[in-house]
Amino acid sequence: MLVPPSSPPSVHRALVLGSMAAALSGVLAAGAVLATRPSAPALDPCRPSVDIATMTQHHRTVVARWALACSDLTHGRITQAQYDARSAAIDAAWTAPVAAPEPVMVWAATVRGFSSQYSEASWSAQRVLGAPDVYPQHGDLVNAWASRGADDADEWIEVGFAQATRASAIELYETFNPGAVSEIELVTASGNRITAYQGSPAASGPQANKLRVELACSDEPIVAVNVRLGSRRVVGWNEIDAIGLQRCP
Q1: CA pair distance 18, 22, nearest whole angstrom
Q2: Distance between CA atoms of 10 and 17, rounded to whole angstroms?
C-alpha cells in the first residue's frame, strides 16, 4: 500500500488508490464467491499491506489516518471527493519533514580535580556540576565555580560524567568575566586525552557567555573534560557555571 518516505507523494497516492481499488474489486469478487462458499472471509480494503511495526511513529500515524479515511469511504460516511481531499493531505504528511529531536545534553556529575576553589561552599568546584543554574545571568554569583584568587595563576578544573558518552559538542557556561578559557581537553574511556579547543584568553565583555565547541562524533566514549583558564590574562574571577557534553545523534 505504502512506499518508503523518500518516494514522491504522487507515487504514494497512486499506490494508495490502486491498492484501495484492487481491494474493493476483491470485495466484489468475494461477494460472488460467497454464493457458493459462504465461509470465505470478506477482504478488508482498508487493511495496510505493509508491516507498520517497521515504520517510524510519524509514518504509523499517517497510515492510521489513511485507514480511517478509507473506512469512511468504504462505509459511505464520506464521498469520493472528500476522500480525495483527505488523501492529498495524507500524501503531503507522508513526506513532510519531521522535526529533529532536541539534542541530549549530559552534564558534569563529579569533580575529578581542580587547581583551587574560592571556598568549600560558595564558589566551590562542586558548583560547576549539573545543568546551568546561573546562566544566562552574569555576575559574581555563588553558584558558579571560582578560583581562590582572582588573578594569582592560571587555573584548571576536570569534571567527570555519570556515564561515558560519545559526544558531538561541548558546552561551557562562563558567567563572570568570560573569555579566559584557553584549552578544553576530552578524556576518553581508555584514558586518551584529546584537545578539543584551544583559544587565546581575552575579555569578551560584561555578558555571560556560552562557549560551544562542535566536534566530529567521538570514536570513543568520553568520561571527563578538562578545562584550562588563562586567568592572569582576563582580569577578575573567571567563573564557570556548568560544563556539558551533547550526545551524538
Answers
A1: 6
A2: 11
Where does the pLDDT of residue 98 fall: very low under 50, low under 70, confident under 90, or very high at 90 and above?
low
CA angle 54, 59, 60 (to 5 degrees): 70
| CA 155/CA 180 separation, integer angstroms | 10
User: How far is C-alpha 41 from the geometric centre of its chain's CA atoms?
Assistant: 46
DSSP string across 121-152: STT-GGGGSSS-SSTT--SS-TTSB--SSSSS
pLDDT digits (tens, 9 = 90+) for 143-152: 999 999 999 9
Q: What is the pLDDT of residue 42?
A: 61
Cβ atoms of residues 27 and 75 within 8 Å = no
What gap in Å lies between CA 133 and CA 140, rounded to an integer?
13
C-alpha dihedral sign at 20, 25, 30, 31: positive
Cis-peptide into 178, omega within 30 deg: no
Residues 6+ apart with CB under 8 A from 20: 45, 46, 70, 73
Give the number of other Cβ atoms within 10 Å of residue 218's Cβ.
18
Which of 11-25, 69-83, 225-239 is predicted with the least confidence, judged by mean pLDDT?
11-25
Bigger pLDDT: 156 or 32? 156
